């Protein structure tokens, strides 16, 4: 039976799941100065196309199941779309069923985490350690050996195939 409450719940779930780009926190530009690569907001807007800017600099999220990188299976390295820092080795990628590229471990020193309490949830946001770009979130429901799931926005990543 469809009720007004169930319709509202479904709508909010779709919104939070990324039915469109959402803002899940304040702009990361506030962290300027603590990163090796810093740019003004205008420089980031010029460098990153609109949807990538919203995710990486405004802590948004892309719609689930839309990233080309979701099905990337080649050997290589996933890098930051903002500064090309190496973030994840392809052998740590796994299919989580969530609609976003997921990894069980980042490369050493490549990412930072910070508590995200937006929308009444408690999560750990993941950002690039070089430019501070928002990448996604990390959860403790991943596979062995770490038990972690780095759930990343595909548009915040680039893929560099291994040379043959």
Overall pLDDT score: 84
Question: Helix tally?
Answer: 3
Could you give the distance between the termini?
57 Å
Helix content: 10-25%
In CATH terms, what is the fold-level topology? Metal Binding Protein, Guanine Nucleotide Exchange Factor, Chain A
CATH superfamily placement: Peptide methionine sulfoxide reductase
Strand order of the largest sheet: 3-4-8-7-6-5
Q: What overall geometry do the principal axes of the alpha carbons give?
A: globular
* Biggest beta sheet attributes: 6 strands, antiparallel
Which CATH-level-2 architecture? Beta Complex
Q: What fraction strand? A: 15-25%
Roughly how many Å is the radius of gyration?
A: 16 Å
What's the level 1 CATH class? Mainly Beta
Number-wise, the strands total 9
Q: What is the element string, with H for helices and E for strands?
A: HHHEEEEEEEEE
The computed structural class is alpha+beta
Regions with pLDDT < 50 over 5+ consecutive residues?
Answer: 1-32
Total domain units:
1
Record the SSE blueprint:
Layout: H1 4-16, H2 41-47, H3 50-58, E1 76-80, E2 86-89, E3 93-94, E4 102-103, E5 111-116, E6 123-128, E7 134-139, E8 149-152, E9 157-161
Antiparallel strand pairs: 1-2, 1-9, 3-4, 4-8, 5-6, 6-7, 7-8
Describe this structure in words.
- This protein is α+β, with helices and mostly antiparallel strands.
- It has a single domain, classed as Beta Complex (Metal Binding Protein, Guanine Nucleotide Exchange Factor, Chain A), CATH 2.170.150.
- The protein is built from three helices and nine strands, in the order αααβββββββββ.
- It has helices spanning 4-16, 41-47, 50-58; strands spanning 76-80, 86-89, 93-94, 102-103, 111-116, 123-128, 134-139, 149-152, 157-161.
- The strands form two sheets. It has a six-stranded antiparallel beta sheet. A three-stranded antiparallel beta sheet has the order 2-1-9, with no helix packed on it.
- The model is unreliable at 1-32 (pLDDT under 50).
